[in-house]
Amino acid sequence: MAHAAFHPTALSVNLNKVALVRNTRHLGIPSVTRAATLCLEAGARGITVHPRPDERHIRLHDVFDLAALLQAWPDREYNIEGNPFHNLMAVAREVKERGLPLHQLTLVPDSEGQFTSDHGWTFPQDAERLRPLIAEAQALGARVSLFMDPEPAQMAAAKAVGADRVELYTEPYAAAWHTSDRQNQLERYRAAAQAALDAGLGVNAGHDLNRDNLTAFLRTVPGVSEVSIGHALIADALELGYAATIVDYNRCIADAFA
Fold this sequence. Notes:
Low-confidence stretches: none
Radius of gyration: 17 Å
Number of helices: 11
Helix content: 40-55%
CATH class: Alpha Beta
């Protein structure tokens, strides 16, 4: 087992796109667990999956196979994300019933057929229905992160409903990377992260972060504990291989703190 030099921000690799390619045939390749192993060996700090009800990418057996794999990596984390009003809570309960590791549940308000996650929770509208599910997730021993838009005024409400962290939805920042709006977007995320920290929340981030925009984001946005990256990272891995890709994403993280 390889031991990496850990940076202040953890890189969690979302493996949904590996499963998506595998599911186009019945050969079991590319292997999701092999991808996870190579990423962990190269220094990834965690693995993320988003098992949607239609199993269009990650399937239920993948969730358990990866949890079993992570038993051999006690210093790494397993993050399962999804809508707690669909299948997420049942999946989490079964992981724990099997005695497998589960470090974080990221609650995402996506619809069943949604192309990809594209907005966060809103308060006070979602507060009362989320509260018991957050408590249940924490009773299972999982940290709870809420997928949120970068709205500073919403952060105290996320804390009040019981969340441990927020995951800032970063697609608007990524979309602005090559435009004159980049600095305005960075300021939005800086303010939202600071509001979250001030409220006593941890801060995660994810969605369309990549090797071009990651360093600037982490230099500007305070206190980011984890970035969850899937689509861009797997696209890079098709060209560079998993190991070189993880090394370079960790370089991007390290450069932000140099």
